[in-house]
Hints:
The complex is a heterodimer.
Chain A: H1 2-24, E1 32-39, H2 42-58, E2 62-69, H3 74-84, E3 90-94, H4 97-100, H5 125-128, E4 132-133, E5 136-137, E6 140-145, E7 147-152, H6 153-158, H7 167-181, H8 192-207, E8 212-213, E9 216-217, H9 221-236, H10 243-249, H11 258-261, E10 267-271, H12 275-281, E11 288-290, E12 303-313, H13 320-331, H14 334-340, H15 350-358, H16 364-375, E13 377-380, H17 388-391, H18 397-406, H19 412-427
Parallel strand pairs in A: 1-2, 1-3, 12-13
Antiparallel strand pairs in A: 3-12, 4-5, 6-12, 7-10, 7-11, 8-9
Chain B: H1 2-33, H2 38-43, H3 55-58, H4 70-101, H5 107-116, H6 122-135, H7 145-152, H8 157-168, H9 173-180, H10 185-196, H11 198-214, H12 217-222, H13 231-237, H14 247-267, H15 269-277
Helix pairs in contact in B: 4-7, 4-8, 4-11, 4-13, 9-10, 11-14, 11-15, 13-14
Amino acid sequence: MKTHLLRIAALASAVLLTASAVSCTGKENTQKKISLSWWGGESRHEATMNAVKAFEEKHEDIKLDVKFGAWDGWEDAMTAAFYAGTQTDIVQINWNWLDVFNSNGNLFLDLNTVSDHLDLSGYSQAELDPCTFDGALEAVPVSLTGRIFYWNRTIFEKAGLDVPSSLKDLFTAGEVFRKKLGEDCYPLALAEYDRMMLMVYYLGAQYGKPWIRNGRLNYTRDEIRKGVEFIDSLEKGHVIPSIAEISGDGSVTFDRSPKWMNGKYAGIFEWDSAASKYSNALEGNGDFVVGDYFSDFGRYKGGYSKISLAFAVSKKTEHPEECAEFLDFILNDPEGTALMGVERGIPISRNAVKSCEAAGMLKGIEKEANDKVLAGTSFSFDIKFEDPKLKTSPEGIYFDAFSGLSYGEYSAEKAAEIISDGVRKVLGETGK
Amino acid sequence: MKRTKTADLILIYSVLTFIGIIMIYPLLWMISATFKTNSEVTSGLSLLIKEPVPDGYLALVNNYGGNINCIKALFNTYVYLVPKVIFTLISSLFTAYGFARYNFPMKKLLFGLLISSMFLPDAVMIIPQFILFSKLGMVDSPLYTALVVPSVFAYDTYFVFLLVQFLKGVPSELDDAARIDGCSSFQILFHIIAPVLKPALVSCAVFQFIWTSNDFMGPLLYVNTPSAYPLQVYIRLAMDAESGFQYNRVLASALLAVIPSLIVFFCSQRSFTDSITSGAVKG
């Protein structure tokens, strides 16, 4: 028995030794290792892995270690990694992470320092500004996104209507839906955060000024109240279901909601990049179309856009130049950009747009939605707009204000006060 | 008399069957939903499948980015789960034995500290623990050390508490008798205490097995290489909030994840229920 054990132990150590000896020889020594992380769905994983492989074939001296996952839990894992300083060399970031995790500016590399390896000519300065802090370019934006209406045209046709192109149409649809399709059918569905978004778009169109300017809330409490009353009027006019009703559906997002799949909700106000998710959820049971911004929303063009996501390079990386090379490959190189495709939204980089166009990728509903968003946009979101204290569900300010309003706990006045005070607090404004 | 007995039996069994069906319905629904399309999954609670589709199961062997599929993820899970369960049992048994049978300075204080750590929410521990483990170079180790090592030090104090409570019910005369017969402390632990504690140990093992198979945050933090992802992380890979997901695929992989837990539970069922009831008759 004992000799048997000894033999096994000897064999095991022999195997281990050989394995380590093998790994010490060969390319490993000359290869520079960089790591890359991203979140996303299956098609994004596949596209990015293909780009990584193509890059490694071109640059035999560089080896990429990848880490990827789904969005759920990803932000928590990255939080821990940022605190411990174990983030990957290249990180796909949410734009507001530049603010949330990086307030002292020593997390990400200033990409201007590697401009020999990363061509930024595909971007205008205005496009890079949102990622620039104290002159340091901390990330390169990948795509711009904004909210837009999507309609399930089949349902509107069932009610004898065309998809709404004005606010008036929308309110008419609310009444017609109630009479013809039933109490539980609505032309539009908005959860708390969607309501906040729509309100900000509405106010932008009404007053023609951005929500936050120079780090200060740009709206008075009275003006916000007007926006809150607008949202309230939608609910009262049977245009949108109450928050209680939406919660009762038991789905986190509308694409998983049976009421969206079965056509009880005929419209949403969502990111342009989310089109295929909602369209797929209908499984061919509805004609999914991109809507227009309403002409009678207000005198101004009130749309907003923001950077949907960006790539940053960790300051701790040992190979900043190699990281920049890789970024250049996926943002500018004809082969790399075509492999990455539009998996992270319609790219901003002119060079990427060119190769995606050549590959016939710039078509379909997402492109249409993105075009409409960019055409309807006159403002960009402030980086604090999505601050966790405001945006998180269910304890964030937006959620508190709009669910309280819908449940009848708050008056429009009170909800406006909560939003105004909450936003000012996050912005660090003192006094009212 | 006999008739009433049969009637009683019928009544009891029909009530039990009815409740049993209610209990097992979600599991049956899960199995049937693995063959359904998304719209059918969300449209009702029926077990009947209108148009069965095998997509969910076919997707199990699909490789994500050429790195990981469901079968590999399942294997990865057991690579750290089995040692973790074994280490938990050994370390908790040692710790509990010490606290229950020996007197040493500050025993009460230390036991109090141990128990109070039971009430620390996990969320508080995540970042300090992550920083510690990453300084020790245990993040993304191929042997999952960050996930296994804590169990070597009786990290899950709940089990220590459980075993100490059980040990209190085991008369110390047993130890004395063994000691007179010439047993050392370790021999007493392994030949006398451990066999008596078997039901409690089994329940510790079952709990640890189930908790570890359900733990998502741990592997997400400490495993960075996609090809080493365990099943919990793998299932989430198929559930992306941005691009939408197929329920049948998620449920099929979840079913695969549940089967081993079910087998473990059924195999250890007798000891497990023993351990729950054995405390009931103590006076």
